[in-house]
Amino acid sequence: MARIPATAVAASGLIGGYGVARWTEKRPLGGVALAAAGSLAAYGWNRQAGPRAAAGLTVAYVAAFAGSHPLAKKVGAWPAVFAVAGGVAAASWAVTRRSANP
Fold first, then answer.
1. CA nearest 53: which of 65, 41, 64?
2. Which of 30, 38, 45, 48 is the most buried (most CB within 10 A)?
3. For residues 63 and 102, which has the higher predicted lDDT (pLDDT)?
């Protein structure tokens, strides 16, 4: 079975969590999707880069989710979600790439 990179899981979790909440009109359901993807990404980060990197990237994931709310007031909901998802993906890629190539 092919492994999905934690970078993709994290970005998809932010986008998918918002999408689920918006389309179902049930915010808690979006939160479940967000948390599930975040947990899976954290597992991948821990496996790829160790517990310290996983903790830092998990904090970035949660901060991106929180930061998307005020950003959405300035640029709109979807642009904000895509922006923070891109930021988390970039951070994840940088940290896991550096760990994979010592």
1. 41
2. 45
3. 63
Tokens at residue 11, please? Answer: 């970005």
Q: What is the 3-state secondary structure (H, E, C) of the chain?
A: CCCCCHHHHHHHHHHHHHHHHHHHCCHHHHHHHHHHHHHHHHHHHHHHHCHHHHHHHHHHHHHHHHHHHHHHHHHCHHHHHHHHHHHHHHHHHHHHHHHHCC
pTM, 2 dp: 0.91
Mean pLDDT over all residues of the chain? 94
How confident is the model over 62-71, as a mean pLDDT? 97
| C-alpha separations of 90 from 27, 31, 84 in Å | 26, 22, 10
pLDDT of residue 3: 82
